[in-house]
Specification:
Layout: H1 7-20, H2 33-40, H3 44-56, E1 60-63, E2 67-70, E3 75-76, H4 85-91, E4 96-107, H5 110-116, E5 123-133, E6 136-146, H6 163-169, E7 175-186, H7 189-195, E8 202-212, E9 217-226, E10 230-231
Parallel strand pairs: 3-10
Antiparallel strand pairs: 1-2, 4-5, 5-6, 6-9, 7-8, 8-9
Helix pairs in contact: 1-3, 2-3
Length: 235
């Protein structure tokens, strides 16, 4: 038996179908609620109900004073933690790129030394990068690696090369497992500017320790993903 959807649900499905067909792309502005009501012969309350549900489901979003916009579908934040960002995006059919924001040698603090199983003051490679997908800023990532495991790492072009691929192919390191934690944070002014966000803006911050097959920690990374574009899979 065919089910007749309520009017607000019919409008929801029409808008979702238009997005699926490509008639409305992520970032496109939708007609106003008044225009939708007039176009579909619905009450403002019915249209409002449909829009509220689409916002709640992450299909559209509202910019106060500007209007309704189609949301960008959220990506999983590194569903396989042993794949590099570049490898992960390539597997999804997208083009990854990086801008190196900082690359230097630093001394391990008490916290970093404990995290990586080193002595305080041990030499670390610190690598800060802006990660982009198809040219769009997606995440800020800072990595710390024991220099003893990858001497000369800063001589490589890590804006163009995959860090994990360099560790594997150049240094013969075998990445075996990782441990991750995640939390939500608000972007500070610097992070928001780098990621093209308007504050207040949410970030999904993932800390990851990656281990070799020997059990030694090879990297601690902190990645701040755009909260409007990313989610963290639980399995």
């Amino acid at each position: 038996m065919k089910v007749t959807l309520p009017l607000y649900a019919q409008l929801k499905e029409e808008l979702i179908a238009a997005i699926a067909r490509g008639e409305l792309a992520p970032g496109d502005r939708l007609p106003s609620q008044r225009e939708l009501a007039e176009r579909h012969g619905m009450s403002h309350m019915t249209v409002r109900h449909a829009i509220d549900e689409l916002c709640h489901e992450g299909v559209v979003y509202v910019i106060p004073g500007k209007g309704l916009y189609v949301a960008q579908p959220k990506l999983d934040a590194e569903s396989d933690p042993l794949l590099s960002f570049t490898e992960e995006m390539t597997r999804r059919g997208q083009k990854a790129s990086s801008q190196v924001l900082g690359a230097e040698m630093v001394a391990a603090s008490t916290v970093l030394a404990r995290t990586l199983g080193l002595e305080v003051g041990a030499r670390l490679v610190r690598l800060a990068r802006l990660r982009l997908v198809d040219g769009m800023p997606m995440a800020l990532q800072t990595s710390y690696l024991p220099h003893v495991l990858c001497p000369g790492l800063l001589e490589h072009d890590l804006g163009r090369s995959s860090l994990y691929e360099v560790l594997r192919s150049v240094y013969g390191l075998h990445l075996a497992r990782s441990r991750r934690t995640a939390e939500a944070m608000l972007a500070d002014a610097e992070s928001a500017a780098a990621l093209g966000l308007t504050r207040p803006a949410a970030l999904l911050v993932v800390d990851q320790i990656t281990y070799l097959d020997s059990g030694a920690a090879v990297e601690f990374s902190r990645t701040a993903y755009r909260g409007d574009l990313y989610r963290l899979p639980l399995s």
